[in-house]
């Protein structure tokens, strides 16, 4: 396994998925529900998200290649999309209404757009397409995706307690800080795309 790529991937995924922020949204969506329902929604959310990220990350580049889209063009467009996501993380407030009793929230909004939204899927493709040995890249990035989703799952299960500890102000500070980090990561992808496409 490529440790450098794993660390790079886990940093990027932690920033864009934001386990604490996602857990607090999960808590607001499942407020008043019993623990069995909360556990089921948390399990389904991370399984669906993991499947989407690993599948799309592995085969997304081949799909774009089949469509005649260069990976460096994807780096630039993906970087712009991530920057757009970062901009909204910094400047806007996420709002979701509480789910109706026993409504399945695992696909929407937990998996898409929160855990495996357009920005995360784009990041997965860019990470899987890093210039390293293919098997090593798949193992490293898949391990990073699983690690981040396990952290997110733990945070969702403990979201009642997280809300009491962090509160709304703490979540706002963390989300905006992570938005700045994501913006820097987005610019790095754009820079690499422009540099490689002109070679």
The biggest beta sheet, please? none
Net shape:
globular
Query: What level of helicity do the residues show?
Result: over 70%
SSE series: HHHHHHHH
User: Ranges with pLDDT <50 over ≥5 residues?
Assistant: none
C-alpha end-to-end distance: 29 Å
Count of discrete domains: 1
- Strand tally is 0
Q: pLDDT average, as an integer?
A: 85
Number of helices: 8
What is the gyration radius calculated from CA atoms? Answer: 17 Å
Strand content: under 5%
Overall SS class: mainly alpha
InterPro entries: Multi_antbiot-R_MarC
Keywords: Cell membrane, Membrane, Transmembrane, Transmembrane helix
Pfam families: MarC (PF01914)
Main location: membrane
Protein model, in words:
Helices cover 82% and strands 0% of the residues. It is mainly α and 199 residues long. It has one domain (3-197). Helix 4 (71-91) packs antiparallel against helix 6. The mean pLDDT is 85.
Nutshell version of this structure?
82% of the residues lie in helices and 0% in strands.
Q: SSE layout and pairings?
A:
Blueprint: H1 3-17, H2 19-29, H3 35-66, H4 71-91, H5 106-115, H6 118-128, H7 134-157, H8 159-197
Please supply descriptive tags for the structure shown above.
8 helices; mainly alpha; 199 residues
């Amino acid at each position: 396994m490529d440790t450098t790529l794993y660390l790079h991937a886990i940093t990027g995924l932690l920033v864009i998925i934001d386990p604490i922020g996602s857990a607090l949204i999960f808590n607001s969506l499942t407020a008043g529900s019993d623990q069995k329902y909360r556990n089921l929604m948390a399990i389904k959310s991370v399984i669906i998200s993991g499947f989407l990220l690993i599948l799309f990350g592995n085969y997304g580049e081949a799909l774009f290649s089949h469509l005649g889209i260069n990976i460096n063009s994807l780096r630039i467009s993906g970087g712009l999309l991530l920057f757009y996501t970062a901009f909204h993380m910094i400047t806007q407030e996420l709002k979701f209404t509480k789910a109706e009793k026993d409504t399945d929230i695992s696909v929407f909004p937990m998996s898409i757009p929160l855990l495996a939204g357009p920005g995360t899927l784009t990041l997965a493709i860019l990470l899987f397409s890093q210039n390293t040995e293919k098997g090593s890249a798949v193992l490293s990035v898949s391990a990073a995706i699983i690690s981040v989703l396990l952290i997110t799952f733990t945070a969702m299960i403990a979201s009642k307690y997280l809300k009491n500890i962090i509160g709304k102000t703490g979540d706002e500070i963390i989300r905006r800080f992570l938005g700045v980090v994501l913006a820097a990561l987005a610019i790095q992808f754009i820079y690499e795309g422009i540099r490689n496409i002109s070679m």
